[in-house]
């Protein structure tokens, strides 16, 4: 997982963009680019890794604990709503 | 910059390792690896990006503000000592 | 929640320590303490806030999705094991 | 430091707001507030600690390396411009 073909495709797209960022950084270092620009690109790389983390974490929580057809385990709470609330908070740590 | 050939070489080595991590992640997603393992690998990728950030930041601060042969600008402080103290703190944000 | 009296007590203890750190910082700023020391104390404050986050997040996940006496919802996975694995990863973001 | 009375006053104001947040959290835990709300408040507390970090770090860099009346140490660069560029990047790590 990410299980759905759509989730998988999106994760792969993100990873290809990240690979492009890493390659651009490698060239930038080789060419002696100004540190200040490198730092910006590294911050963007971290942002992209965090975005990927948030997406895979979201899939993971939904797969593990999201509602499924038949069961509605802890009836008082809607797990999907809870996961959404949780991800909203965790995303503030993944910027 | 990183200016010295040695700094440059180390930054490039780090970037190659990071590219390897990204490629391994892409394969892992394609193969439907368990999310929990993907999350570990993404956390390691972020750690590597942070390590690179710390290293380039350190070079940048030394280049901008480190002692140079002739001048010793704000005589009361040793800029190298200050930069080292600063990086020690910033590294706690870059884990 | 944190629901159990023990969890609650620990969260309150952490918050009291954090309050102590904030008060010490306020005094330090008033007294004109060196920035470098202030930065260390602020990094420690952030560490303490992250530690609290990790603890409350752990309680929250267990309450929402942890095993309960009667039901074992998605039989293939042990939610407690999954939560532990997840928290292990999230803690790397909460240092 | 922060040296100027204005910087000091602002740091103290931030710390008082943070103390208020910590006290509100302590009450919230005592009253058994929902974890989801606690997590939001803890994320806000971390944000406030990061905001304080950014501010003190900015003061610190300016004090150590900012331009001063007489000297213009490494003539090719304007340290104030460099510090501003640096803080812009570091702030992305301090959200």
UniProtKB/TrEMBL annotation, chains A, B, C, D:
Highest taxon, organism lineage: Bacteria
Organism this protein belongs to: Pusillimonas noertemannii
InterPro entries assigned to the protein according to its UniProt record, in alphabetical order: Metal_Tscrpt_repr, Metal_Tscrpt_repr_sf
Family: Belongs to the FrmR/RcnR family.
Name recorded for this polypeptide: DNA-binding FrmR family transcriptional regulator
Gene3D superfamilies per UniProt: Metal-sensitive repressor, helix protomer
GO biological-process terms attached to the record: negative regulation of DNA-templated transcription
Keywords: DNA-binding
Gene Ontology MF terms in the entry: DNA binding; metal ion binding
Coiled-coil ranges (or none): none
């Amino acid at each position: 997982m990410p299980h759905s073909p759509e989730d998988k495709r999106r994760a792969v797209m993100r990873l290809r963009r990240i690979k492009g960022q890493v390659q651009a950084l490698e060239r930038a270092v080789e060419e002696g680019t100004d540190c200040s620009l490198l730092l910006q690109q590294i911050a963007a790389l971290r942002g992209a890794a965090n975005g990927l983390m948030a997406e895979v974490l979201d899939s993971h929580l939904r797969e593990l604990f999201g509602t499924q057809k038949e069961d509605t385990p802890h009836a008082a709470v809607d797990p999907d709503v809870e996961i959404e609330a949780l991800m909203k908070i965790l995303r503030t740590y993944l910027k």
